[in-house]
Amino acid sequence: MTDPLPFGFSLQAQDGTARTGAITTHRGAIRTPAFMPVGTAATVKAMYPSQVRDLGADVVLGNTYHLMLRPGPERMARIGGLHRFMNWDRPILTDSGGFQVMSLFALRKIDEQGVTFRSHIDGTAHHMSPERSIEIQGLLGSDIQMQLDECVRLPADHAAIEKAMHLSLRWAERCRIAFGEQPERALFGIVQGGDIPALRIESARALADLDLKGYAVGGLAVGEPQAVMFAMIETVEPHLPAAKPRYLMGVGTPDDILGAVARGIDMFDCVMPTRAGRHGLAYTRHGRVNLRNARHAEDTAPLDEASICPATRDYSRAYLHHLVRSNEILGMMLLTWNNLAYYQDLMAGARAAIRDGRYAEYCSETRAGWARSERAAA
Q1: What's the CA gap between 135 and 53, in Å, rounded?
Q2: Distance CA 324, CA 293 (A)
Q3: Per-residue pLDDT tens for 42-54?
Q4: Residues 248-264: pLDDT tens digits?
Q5: Which of 334, 326, 271 is nearest to 302 (CA)?
Q6: pLDDT score of 376
Q7: Residue 289, C-beta contacts closer than 8 angstroms, at least 6 positions apart
Q8: What percentage of the chain carries pLDDT values higher than 90?
Q9: CA–CA distance from 48 to each of 45, 55, 163, 260, 336 (Å)?
Q10: Number of Cβ within a 10 Å radius of residue 315
Q11: Distance, CA of 151 to CA of 96 (rounded, Å)
Q12: Which residues contact 251 (CB under 8 A, 6 or more apart)?
């Protein structure tokens, strides 16, 4: 038996600050920029794993908080790990549970040792320390593991942001020690600091000193305007090692992603395409299409006749409108399929444009396509 491939990252081309490359894992390569479909509870909602693979997704995201509560990490390890459990043989990134803890502010308490919280499922008490977060992610068997951090929803005052940032740095060091030496897997640190540039820079520099295998920018897309998010990325990017992958957590809309790629980000995740699909909203190269709108009731055109995705190409808007208005499960499945296909197409186009040295033009053309359709709809 050969030794598993070590985790690595290689840059293949750069156009301004935008970059394309590949993350190497023992379960396969992740082409960057990459969008990771969110598989919160060991499933990308409304999708078969084979569909997600066929769309071109190289990696999916699992949620440590939810999988800790159900089915439980020790049980997951006994039955072969998350990859086998969900029939996904490609890389998996697991978040640390920090964002969910933030959203459970009424059910949790944070101190130096970690987070004590009550399950949103049954009210049972749990404690998650940085070490336990890493232990859980190890039991799940994920390929990329995130440090436990404290994420502050914006807007917030300076003192709260600074306190959370320093706590997250101390937890990052504890996670690094708990993670140990695992050449085939990666631990990513998370830059915090809210919307305060000096704190963001301090966080990025301190995490870079830990020499982790990758770095995330967290605590954004939590209520701040897009301009603030982009400004924080621009602030942080020069202080993150160029030879390591950069991950913007929880982002976002297609426009957010285009802008973040232009600022040097390599990885993204967001529930938006799957959640929107379950609520009747389609993302296409023609912009967003709300299938609940009555104007689609007799529209025999597909969402995009040029798409290679069957959900996008082979079903009329009238039929999709009917499924959505009837609350049929098939409508949720088809629109989720369409949305994830569009997100993967967007990333493939970005990678090609960066290689060709025309990323700015790609962004302009893509946004112009959205705008033309919005004007026509109006």
Answers
A1: 28
A2: 10
A3: 999 999 999 999 9
A4: 999 999 999 999 999 99
A5: 334
A6: 65
A7: 281, 282, 296, 303, 317
A8: 88
A9: 8, 11, 42, 29, 11
A10: 18
A11: 11
A12: 220, 221, 229, 257, 260, 268, 269, 270
| Catalytic residue annotation | 95, 269
CA separation for the pair 304, 280 (Å, rounded): 16
Whether the ω angle into residue 310 lies within 30 degrees of 0, i.e. cis, is no
By CB neighbour count within 10 A (0-12 exposed, 13-18 middle, 19+ buried), where does 23 fall? buried
Q: Measure the N-to-C terminal CA separation of the chain; round to a whole number of Å.
A: 61
pLDDT at 274 exceeding the cut of 60:
yes
Got the DSSP string for 62-84?
A: EEHHHHHHTT-HHHHHHTT-HHH
- Token digits of residue 136: 């859980």
Report, in this order, helix, strand and coil percent for the chain, each rounded to 5: 45, 20, 35
Copy the structure tokens of residue 211: 């020499």
CB–CB of 219/250 below 8 Å?
no
Total residues found in the chain within this entry = 378
C-alpha neighbours within 13 Å on the C-beta side of residue 131 = 5
Q: How many CB atoms within 10 Å of residue 280? A: 21
Amino acid type, 293: N
- pLDDT tens readout for residues 146-164: 999 998 889 999 999 999 9
**Strand ranges in the chain using DSSP code E only, listed in sequence order:** 8-15, 18-25, 28-32, 34-36, 60-63, 92-95, 108-111, 114-118, 125-128, 144-146, 186-191, 214-217, 246-248, 267-269, 281-284, 287-290
**What pLDDT shows up at residue 153?**
87
pLDDT for residue 13: 98
Burial class of residue 3 (count of CB atoms within 10 Å of its CB; 0-12, 13-18, 19+): exposed
Which residue, among 99, 190, 83, has the nearest Cα to 139 in the 3D structure? 83
Residues 6+ apart with CB under 8 A from 355: 12, 13, 20
